[in-house]
Structure formats: C-alpha cells, structure tokens
Amino acid sequence: METIQNYINGSFHDPINGDWLDNYCPVDGSVTGKLPNSSAEDVENAYIAARSAFPSWSQTPLDERSRILIRISELLESKLQDLAEAESVDNGKPVTLAKTIDIPRAADNFRFFGNATTQFASESHESVGFEAINYTLRQPIGVVGCISPWNLPLYLFTWKIAPAIAAGNCVVAKPSEVTPMTAYLLGAICAEAGLPRGVLNIVHGSGTITGQAIVEHPDITAISFTGGTETGAHIAKLAAPKFKKLSLELGGKNPNIIFADCDYRNMLETTVRSSFANQGQICLCGSRIFVEASVYDKFKADFIMRVKTLKVGDPRDKNTDIGALVSQAHMDKVKEYIAIAKDEGHVILCGGNQVVVNGLENGYYLEPTVIEVTNDACRINQEEIFGPVVTLMPFNREEEALQMANSVKYGLSATVWTNNLNRAMRLSNQLQTGIVWVNTWMLRDLRTPFGGMKASGIGREGGFEALRFFTESKNVCIKY
Ligand SMILES: NC(=O)C1=CN([C@@H]2O[C@H](COP(=O)(O)OP(=O)(O)OC[C@H]3O[C@@H](n4cnc5c(N)ncnc54)[C@H](O)[C@@H]3O)[C@@H](O)[C@H]2O)C=CC1
Ligand SMILES: O=C(O)/C=C/C=C(\O)C(=O)O
Questions:
Q1: InterPro entries, alphabetically (predicted)?
Q2: Which of 84, 303, 399, 470 is most open to solvent, judged by the fewest CB atoms within 10 Å of its CB?
Q3: Ramachandran region, residue 363 (left: φ > 0; alpha: ψ -120 to 50; beta: rest)
Q4: Are residues 395 and 308 in the same domain?
Q5: pLDDT > 90? residue 1
Q6: Sign for the pseudo-dihedral over CA of 426, 431, 435, 438
Q7: Which domain holds residue 378?
Q8: For ligand 2, is residue 249 a contact (CB within 6 Å)?
C-alpha cells in the first residue's frame, strides 16, 4: 500500500486535517494506497511556499531556469519504465502507451518550455511623430494554479506546470484525485533536478475540496484547467468575480470526416487510433465518424473487421491495445451511453459489452464499440462519452458533413480525410474547432496554439501562447 503525500516547499507532508482518499487501480479494481484529501489549509501552506519562492525564481536568469527544466526532462526520461508502469496502474492504460506517449511527452513538455523561455520575446512600437517608444514587458504573474484531469495524467499535468515555471511563476498544482501517482513522483524528480523549493507545490485531493480551494484562493490569480466542460463552467463562475486569468481546456465531440478520395489505408489505420487510443479517453478522439456515402459500406465493413482485432486486456501485456477505463464510475457512465444508444434504436455494429479479463475480474474493461446512427441530433452524437465508443453515419455532400460537424456545442478538434486540396482548405476555414487535422490525427507540434472553441474552452495552450497566458503584459511608453 502506497501513501501519497503533498509536496510543499520542497518536502512531503500529510494532509493537515488527516483526511485521506483511497487510490483505486482500474486494472483490477483494488485499492493500491491512499492520497491526501487536502483542505484549504494545505492549499494555503502551498500558496505561502510559492509566494516565498517567487521573488527569487522570477529573477532567476533564463538560462538557469532553462537548465533546470531540461534536467527535469532528462530525469523523466531516465525513469521511463517506472513512470510508465505507475501511470498504467493508476489509469488503466497499456504500459506500452504510457511508455511511448505519456511519459515521453511529459519529458518533452519540460524540454520544450525550457528552450522556449529563452526564445520568448516581447514587442516594441515606435510611436512615429510623438518622439516616443513603447515596449511591452511580459512579467510572471506570481502564484498560479494548475488543475489537471485523469486521462493523460503526467502528460497534461506537466503541460501546464512547465510553461508556468518557465515563465517565472511559482505554482500550486493539483492532479486528478483518480490518478495521483506520477504527479507525486514528479515532486521528488523536481527536487533532484535542483528546482528551488516552493517553486512547484503539489497538493492532492478531490476537486470540490482541494481544487475549489485553489480556484477560490484570493491570491492565486491565474488558473489553468483541463477537464470536463461542466467543471470548467463552475470554475469560470467562481473565478469571474475575482477577475482571475483563466485557461480552460474542456471536452470535445470531434468529427472525423472521411471523403472517398482519401488515402484509404492510412485513413483506416489512423481512424482506429483516433477512435480508441487511450480507451477513447482523449478529448481529441474523433468520436463522430462521417463517411461519404459512396465508400460508406466498404468503410463500415473494413472498420468493424479491424476494430474486432483490437485486444482488450491486461495493460501490462505488450499485445494489449485497449486497457481498462479509469474508474468504475466512468465505466458506468460509458455503459449508460451504450444503453441510451440501444434505447434510441441505433445499431451496435460491434462491441457494446463489458469484458471480464482473466485474473483481473474486478477491472474496468469495455469492448471497443461502434454504433451506426441515422440522426446526428441524437444524444450519443451530441454528448461527450469519453470512452471507447464511436458513431458512424454516411453523408452525401460536403455541406452536409460540415453542417453536422459543426452541429454540437463543442469545438475542440476535427479531422478531414481528402486528397482534394481545395476542399481541405475550404473545410478547414469553416470548421468551428480550435484544431483541424487534414489526413492525420494527433500530430502535435508543441509550438502551435492548442485549445477549443464554444463549450470546449477558452484560451490556448502551447508554445508562446502558454508563455503569454502565464505572464502579464505591461506597456511602457518612453518619450524622448
Ligand atoms: N480533457 C478533457 O477533455 C477531459 C474531459 N473529461 C470529461 O469530464 C467528465 C467528468 O470527468 P471528471 O474526472 O469528473 O473531470 P473533472 O472535470 O471533474 O476533473 C478534472 C480536474 O478538475 C478537478 N475538479 C473537479 N471539480 C473541481 C472544482 N469544483 N474546482 C476545482 N477543480 C475541480 C478534479 O479534481 C480534476 O483534477 C468525463 O466523463 C469526461 O467526459 C474528463 C477528463 C478530461
Ligand atoms: O496534446 C495535447 O497537448 C493534449 C492532448 C489531450 C488533451 O488535452 C485531453 O485529452 O484533455
């Protein structure tokens, strides 16, 4: 049994009120240990540590900040196997996925922002005719809050922390209470890398107690959050009267639009991935598949055949494609949507059932599920399921596909498969999403703006956008 502790001011602490949560392992449903359910007092201690560290950290030369961030990145890489196993135990994802995607990306996040901060620059404006020059300072905000979800635990936790500290802020961060382990391990790694104490403080606990205490703290003036849309709306409501800076990366219900003229093999293989990677628990997964009518039947047959080959099973087995869903509660939610689909009269083309894995009978496993729908307005095409469930629907005209793609309240990402350049550019202009992938999916260049429109959030992460978020700009006007 592992006891996870808060990491505050460079050392590990139990929660002040002695309140703990169980940490469940989705692989077999067992309790692996406990984590603090931190109170506002713990958050206050984390804040005080961060505030004390700020004057020195914000004045630390960029080269030195960069060196420490890159050292964290190297240490993450050197502990790849252990971190990948820990992520898999906490989250249920295949170890191979954590090893090839989650942990390398966490390391990349630190390396990228360690380098980016040395390249970040501000503007100047010569006020011609006024004998004046304006220049913009981009100063760190102070103490900022980072709150992350359970689907890509270390990947998304570090995607927020790395730019925040690279920009000179000190951080109070909370990982999801469902997947706390790799965030806990990160504390020791940061200490080993020489990150001064108090720069990063990690408090564990539930959203409604610990998370909310961070959002409501009067002096934590910027919040970067990734998670569900409802939680994002709640956080926005709390933060608005306090005029906090907010970055909200929320849910998605992303269209995957397939035209007959695409590179079929590449599309088919990528669509399997964009549908079911990480058990479909990525906000960017293409959960609504729209296929041009002339290739619909062929695609349906090929896709189902391919999906049926996916192996659901023990996340530690290197042949496993689909591991466990993150929790009993989440699996129940996904199963409920499958039941809704049946009630609404849609056809389950494959999957739809819970899987009992030999030796792991209490784990949370579901078959990859493909559902044919005839009406885009139905609940399973409008609401975020966030699991291994996709819908299929044919379309006849480009305008029809576009209309359906934009018909949801979300606007995170879209994928378009076509070899017609004009069409690709036309759709890219008109899709109401923050990200459009053409003939690919999840190809990530960390310099690009990342985030959604509509109910998928506000603000953009990534590259200099993140460094802008984590700094206040101040204009200085000098008359000469
Ligand atoms: N990136 C994404 O798009 C994600 C979307 N989701 C969606 O959200 C649904 C709910 O999943 P949850 O785990 O409940 O996500 P959530 O939005 O409740 O949790 C995300 C993070 O926010 C924290 N949190 C929750 N309530 C809070 C509050 N009042 N104040 C501050 N922090 C708070 C949580 O502790 C966690 O660290 C999922 O079924 C899925 O549809 C979930 C995770 C990631
Ligand atoms: O690649 C990224 O930066 C982000 C990927 C996925 C999410 O943000 C998510 O699933 O929440």
A1: Ald_DH/histidinol_DH, Ald_DH_C, Ald_DH_CS_CYS, Ald_DH_CS_GLU, Ald_DH_N, Aldehyde_DH_dom
A2: 399
A3: beta
A4: yes
A5: no
A6: negative
A7: 255-445
A8: yes
Residue 152 beta carbon below 6 angstroms from any ligand 2 atom:
yes
Name the residue among 54, 16, 251 with its Cα closest to residue 151: 251
Ligand 1 centroid to Cα of residue 52, in Å, is 30
* pTM, two decimal places: 0.98
- Look-up: residue for tokens 């087995």? 317
In a domain, 157, yes or no: yes
> Could you count the other beta carbons within 10 Å of the beta carbon of residue 125?
12
pLDDT digits (tens, 9 = 90+) for 369-412: 999 999 999 999 999 999 999 999 999 999 999 999 999 999 99
Q: Which two tokens stand for residue 243?
A: 């005029």
Q: What is the pLDDT of residue 136?
A: 98
Domain co-membership, 388 together with 295: yes
Question: How many domains in the chain?
Answer: 2
Tokens of 213: 């205490």
Task: Look up tokens 């135990």; give the residue.
Answer: 89
Residue 451 in any domain: the answer is no
Distance CA 30, CA 90 (A): 11
Is 450 domain-assigned? Answer: no
Q: Which of 2, 85, 87, 249 is catalytic?
A: 249
Q: Which two tokens stand for residue 85?
A: 């196993």
Beta bridge partners of 450: 461
Residue 466 belongs to a domain:
yes
Which residue, 74, 117, 80, is CA-closest to 446?
A: 117
Q: What is the CATH number of the domain that holds 203?
A: 3.40.605.10
